[in-house]
């Protein structure tokens, strides 16, 4: 099994040029649409892993569809509104392993981020390390693990569809020096060509987006914004650059949706 564009085993997942690297190893693979599955990138061991994974993915796809129905109703929309807005829902799984770390204060398991998709179902072990913030990262609340329970995070897509009424989960993972930690994140995403725009805009309220865009375009913009934020920090640390030099050095072309996301 190898790393690569459509999944596989990877160590850390920092953005190109980012100063802080994530203290994690992970396996990632696409599970939906079924035709996109690339079994050559799925682990061969332990025996039975593939069958269990397929069953797990199907159960989580069903659960996600139910949750989207509930969310649609909470947004005063018809039950099928969110699933329809996803066109044909994609699913991607990441199994995160955070080894115990001798100096946890100097790193993060996974840097602060929001998930790009509609919702994420996260299963975490009993070690704990998931944290969320509501004030832009000034304070962090630990999401205590509950045995057998999923954490459901709203992603950017869900946030935009609700016109910002429902907030995207701004989160990160910290590590500790005593225990390694495992989590499984199942990302429920719209199809790349799905249109991202609020499904209902209340009277007198401004839409959170200027225009409808595709999910693939939304993702590209998100990645290029993240790159912009990450690179200057790293460059400024490495060398004393003038503002003009910094601008030129940070003018990197963002990768396409297909390059990054699949
Ligand atoms: O491990 C965690 O608790 C968070 C995982 C996560 O946010 C991710 O995989 O995107």
Automatic annotation (TrEMBL):
One of its GO terms (molecular function) is metal ion binding. Residues 90-190 form the Isopenicillin N synthase-like Fe(2+) 2OG dioxygenase domain. The lineage of its organism: Eukaryota, Viridiplantae, Streptophyta, Embryophyta, Tracheophyta. This is Isopenicillin N synthase-like Fe(2+) 2OG dioxygenase domain-containing protein. One of its GO terms (biological process) is flavonoid biosynthetic process. Its cofactor is L-ascorbate. The keyword Nucleus does not apply. Pfam families: 2OG-FeII_Oxy. Residues 234-262 are annotated as: Disordered. Belongs to the iron/ascorbate-dependent oxidoreductase family. Keywords: Flavonoid biosynthesis, Iron, Metal-binding, Oxidoreductase, Vitamin C.
């Amino acid at each position: 099994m190898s790393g690569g564009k459509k999944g596989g085993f990877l160590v850390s997942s920092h953005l190109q040029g980012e100063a802080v690297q994530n203290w994690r190893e992970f396996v990632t693979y696409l599970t939906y649409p079924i035709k996109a599955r690339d079994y050559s990138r799925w682990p061969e061991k332990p025996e039975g892993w593939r069958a269990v994974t397929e069953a797990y993915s199907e159960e989580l796809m069903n659960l996600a569809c139910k949750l989207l129905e509930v969310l649609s109703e909470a947004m005063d929309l018809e039950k099928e509104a969110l699933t329809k807005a996803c066109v044909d829902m994609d699913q991607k799984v990441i199994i995160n392993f955070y080894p115990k770390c001798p100096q946890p204060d100097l790193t993060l398991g996974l840097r602060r981020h929001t998930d790009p998709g509609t919702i994420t179902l996260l299963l975490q072990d009993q070690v704990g390390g998931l944290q969320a913030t509501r004030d832009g990262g000034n304070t962090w609340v630990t999401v205590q693990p509950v045995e057998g329970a999923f954490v459901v995070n709203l992603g950017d897509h869900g946030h935009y569809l609700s016109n910002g009424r429902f907030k995207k989960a701004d989160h990160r993972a910290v590590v500790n020096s005593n225990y390694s930690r495992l989590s499984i994140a199942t990302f429920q995403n719209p199809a790349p060509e799905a249109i991202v725009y609020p499904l209902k805009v209340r009277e007198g309220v401004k839409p959170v987006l200027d225009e409808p865009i595709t999910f693939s375009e939304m993702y590209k913009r998100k990645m290029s914004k993240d790159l912009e934020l990450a690179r200057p920090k790293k460059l400024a640390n490495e060398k004393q650059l003038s503002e003009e030099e910094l601008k030129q050095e940070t003018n990197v072309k963002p990768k396409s949706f297909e390059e990054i996301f699949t």
